[in-house]
Batch of 2 targets.
Target 1
Amino acid sequence: MPAELAVGRTAGIAEPRLDGGRLFWLEQRPGERGRTTLMGRGGAGAAPVDLTPGTWNLRTRVHEYGGGAYAVAGDQVVFVDDGDRCLWQVTLTSDGDPATVAEPRRLTAPPDPERPRAFADGLIDRGRRRWIGVMEQDGLDRLVAVPLAGGEPELLHQPADFCGYAVLAPGGGHLAWVSWEQPFMPWERSQLWLAAIDAAGQLRQARPIAGSAAGDPQGISVFQPLWLDDGSLVVANDRSSWWNLERLADVSALGPDTLPRWQPLCPMEAEFATPQWVYGLRTTAWDGTRLLAAACRQGRWELGRLALDGGPWEPIPLPFSDLAALSAEAGRLVAVAAAPAIGQGLLELETASGTWRHTPTAPPPLAAEAMSLPEPLGFDGHGGAPTHAWYYPPRGGSHAEAPLLVKGHSGPTAMAGTGLNLAIQFWTSRGWGVVDVNYGGSTGFGRAYRERLDGQWGVVDVADCAAAARAVVAAGKADPTRVAFEGGSAGGFTVLAALCFTDVFTAGAVRYPVTDPEALLAVEHRFEARYTETLIGPWPGARALYEARSPLRHATRITAPVLFFHGLDDRVVPASQSEQMVDALRQRGQEAELHLIPGEGHGFRDSAVRTAVLEATEAFFRRQFHL
């Protein structure tokens, strides 16, 4: 399969939403240099409409990672354009066809270069004719309101540090949102806040009602508050060590000094949440009658129903194992869904009957029989702990002479799932086996699995990925002299650390990697400004650990050739990290190839760039392994 088909043509979809019988979603187009546009569709059989054609690019930059680029309610759509970072408004027609009746209109003034600001993760408060969402400015998040008629943001709430995921109660009498503060990430410690809204639209009696703050004895994370029609509130909460759903009934009767009584809904060893790197994430939905949710068990997602009285989990029989971004109304649900042999697309489900349809973003470039399907791989990882990975055999079957590519995901809290990954199929179609590792620190396996990496970044992840490769080789499925390792961002750090501190891998390729964790401390990226305190230790007390884990400081230990790719616009991990590492390797005569890419940041969006990166990686590995 050509690289262009693997990574260059397929559009990405995100944030589908149902509103008033209409379906909306974001579509990222690699062929348009990664431009993201808002798509809309009316009733059954209606054709999709591009609501922001031309040069509009719906993208937010809050916390650098963004997400939550648009909000819709009735005939109003508000979105963030990446060109000026402002809020824009579009009015839709009222005849069921989501076509615009006018050009987008700017709601907020262009930013002051001396005090840049970014908006994201909003909702439309229809009764008060305003947008409510997050504004990041001067090193803080703010919960603000902007009139739909346009104007300056009005401060509603000032959190200690970060906030988002605001939801408005039916009737508009209460607002709930999530807040967290450094040094913790939202999946480590976060709180669910609740406030009443008075007649003037101001928040009153704001207070936390679930989760944990920085100083609390137990770390608890909350995810995605959701209002039900009866005024009760549902949230995912991991105080049981699993992100399970809980319900707070009759929120309106909750006094300022009343202790909230949360009711667990179907406790089980499954995750009903995912790490909040970006806004716009949703794993639960209310269709007007039923509570629906996506649950992750052992690396696979499934869709099901939950009873509000705490009844059993009811899985809905569907062929999909990768589900995200749920939205529902009036007996209908939409989500982004994929399966091992089914590409990402929009899933639409009639929740009463169970009938569904799935619209992939592109037809599969391979026949189903030509695809390599993931096989669960269990092995003993760091310290003998049971660890999980997915193994993809090469086309034609596994054998002892096959080259092996080990993949380390980013985050490092991400999860290797089973949705169709055409980049993996690119390798298996060329005779490679691929092992996609859920090393300690990955989400989807409970809090204890995720916390294996605490203080052990560069140790547990390295040991687990090396153990996965050894397990495949020991099973007679790969050539131990042809084991490559690739990853991006935090996964790139794991690749370089593995090349430093193990002898398992014979070549590596990294994209925008962390090469020296100490250097991250000087980067002006507030979302992760203190993340390394969890992953390695507090600075400067843990200086020795930072130095011991740094691939840059131990570059002399790398004997395998390494390929680097880095975007020159990267503000999360500056390109200087790759440049310094390459210089250190070349000074001792070690082969290191560097590609610096103009116009790209932390994650490549342009189809031409993504294609070139994959082709260059294959050529590099083929040259090293004499294939």
Note: The first strand starts at residue 12 and ends at 19.
Target 2
Amino acid sequence: MATHEKNTAAVSIVAIKNGETIYSKAYGYADIEQQRKADSSTVFEWGSVTKLLVWTSVMQLVEQGKLDLHTNIQEYLPKGFLKKLEYDAPITLLDLMNHQAGWEDRMLELWYLSENQVMDLGETLQKFEPRQIYEPRSVFAYSNYGVAMAAYIVEVQSGQPFYEYVNEHIFKPLDMKETTIHPSHQDRPDLVLRRDQIQGYTANAELIPKTKVYMNIYPAGGAMGTAEDAAKFLAALMPINRGNVLFKNKETLNEMLSTSLYYDGTSIPRIAHGFIEVDYWTPALEHGGNTLGFSNKLIFDPKSNFGLVVMTNQFEEEVYCFGLVQKLFGDNYSTSSVTSGNDGYYLTTRRSGSGFTKLYSILLLKKYSTFDLSNFTNVVEKDGVVEKVSFTYNDYVRVSSSTMIWIIASLIALAIAIVFNLRAVIGYFIRLCFYRLKKWERPGRGFDRYHVAINIAGLAFLLNTTVLAMRALSLNASYSSLRIHLIFNLIYVILALAYFVLLIYKLWKISYSKKQKVVYIMTGVSAFLFATFIVGWDLYF
């Protein structure tokens, strides 16, 4: 803290040994502007650490015989609940724990600014069901939706809303009075007031406005509370030689802490029933969490029963959530042997694969050299070609040459269409200016008016798509609010096809000058390329 105080907002640290707290202290300021210091009562958002509550709940019901980790989840869901599955292979609870159900990542409507927008969990899961873009068990694709699905199954089998189940079966037995997982936190108004007293900051301790939001699939990241309360939960997961409060049988906890997923083709542990397994100098189980203004980590070594809770009010904080952890557990560094000549582009498996948001996948492309690939935890090669690389929280799959050609070609086509479109629009206004100076004939007569109209529509398409992209990245973006942009793009496709058909007919029926033909054809090419780009990148849904 003394070394990094300048770039620190608040951090609360609790160390556990054999289920007992051996160190607990808060540093820095919960609100720098108001000079409000952090202390043991400071409330932090858990982020994805909340997922451990889901997996604990699942294992409790497994222990009671109400759930089976290897059963198709559709047997636990209402008939017809899932409507967008692309593969016949079943999805199990174990697949959800291992993030191997194959679902795409949704970008929209993950957060709400108002508690009144929060819906019932089951309704949310049906309304925002993502597409299944990978076959189950083929890749690790971190999924908030998969975790929320597991929580909903807990609801169905227990007969309780998930937050009530957690209150009764985890928080109450562990005396966690300073934590809430209610979707809008209405059950703990006192904690809401304390949450209002802490601000969110960047990694450089710069204020981030409006970090208080509500998560629509709250079991994946909606809990909040004190670090000391989180430490009670962590302590209860340690396999110490005494009765466990969360499970009746020691074997259940042992199973939960055992490896459920290895890196492909290796004996290197990766997931332990929802925990991330990391091979520091001391192998450990952990889970990190991030929200719009908070970062934290729960980590422990089951062999020595030493654990650590780190909670900060900074987005993507690394000094304590990573640096401090490595000081205590050692570095996490592993290399893989990679055949030379595997330089190429790789795409994260945690991505949107359908709808207009899949265009953002271009921004997620990463070019790795053979040297870069050797720094991943695991590499999957086939016939000397790297197909997939993996590290702790993600997989990257190699983008084929044909896909890269399609991406590059579509971007080049878009650039050509923009040039043609701008040339036509600028040309029209130049002609209009000369007409007003009484030097040229009036533009926009006969077929020329369709030529002008489709070019103006093309310009509107570019503006519309730019606004769509910017709005989609905003915090309160909803699909319903963006639908008007998608409808306009679809209308443009229809207009472009109409212009193209009309152009062919006019060129066949009417003799235009060579210059006119070139201008009209360039406009047709521009409209066709715009329409192809819209359809190819799903910019209409």
Note: Residues 497 and 528 are 7 Å apart (CA to CA).
